[in-house]
Amino acid sequence: MGPGNVPLRAEKAQVQTVAEILNKTSGYLKRKGLENPRLNAEAMLEHVLGLKGIDLYLDHDRPMQDHELMAFRSLVKRRLAGCPVQYLTGETEFFSLSFQISSDALIPRPETEILVEAVLDLLKSRAQPLKVVDLGTGSGIIAINLAVHLGCAQLWATDCSREALALARRNAQRHGVGDRISFHQGDLYNPLRGLEGAFAAVVCNPPYVSSGQLEHLPREIRLHEPLVALDGGSDGLDVIRRIVIGAPSFLAAGGVLALEVGAGQASSVEQSIVETKAFSESWVVEDYARIERVVLAERNPSG
Prior knowledge:
Blueprint: H1 18-31, H2 37-49, H3 54-58, H4 66-80, H5 85-89, E1 91-94, E2 97-100, H6 110-123, E3 131-135, H7 141-149, E4 154-159, H8 162-174, E5 181-185, E6 199-204, H9 219-224, H10 238-250, E7 251-260, H11 266-276, E8 279-286, E9 292-299
Helix pairs in contact: 1-2, 2-4, 6-7, 10-11
């Protein structure tokens, strides 16, 4: 049975329920080798039916209508063709919040939650209001979570993509922090001229995949996510070096630089930080897989 023969078409004499379709599709996706087949089937079915979480199971005996089956079948075919489920449904979860997502921005990864947690741990005890910048904001997940959890902080968010910024603005409005995040189109620090020395933190999940590794990324990433948000140059560190070099000009005395980095990159990033002679110390936070994932550095207290 090929991708075009997804087992979802109901016979006229046989009505299929939500539970039956969910079970059949989960098994089908599993046989096709898809990871997390049940979660994928649930997410697509929730999207088609307009249900959330437990409601899908409370409505388990609801008959599926023909138009619902057709819409669901279309999503399953696109999923089997490699389109990430988050792009199919237009929704994703990050740090316990729900966000709109599209192919204009990277799909958030759990590793980035480590970055957000580290920044919150450092800033929550500092005197408010704070000014924080999120470089390359994408869908806005970092800036929005920092705004939500740092109640009086003012955020700046930059990105080269007009489409990504529009997505981030919608997410900020969704979570009630649109009035505390200023969005600016441009490359890294370029939109921030006039704000030198203003920020308590410069935060970024930058591109850090080496150019040579892009072709080896999984199909779902390589063909569907924006490669410009992944490509870090020949060694994966081109953008990171620019961020490190520029950070001292925009951080206040004692301000924090916080970067997500790739596996094996932390020591090189720390060396770049040392070479600026602008930071009093740097340290690394590991992710759930014990990979050195976040590099943090504190600006010299004397500025």
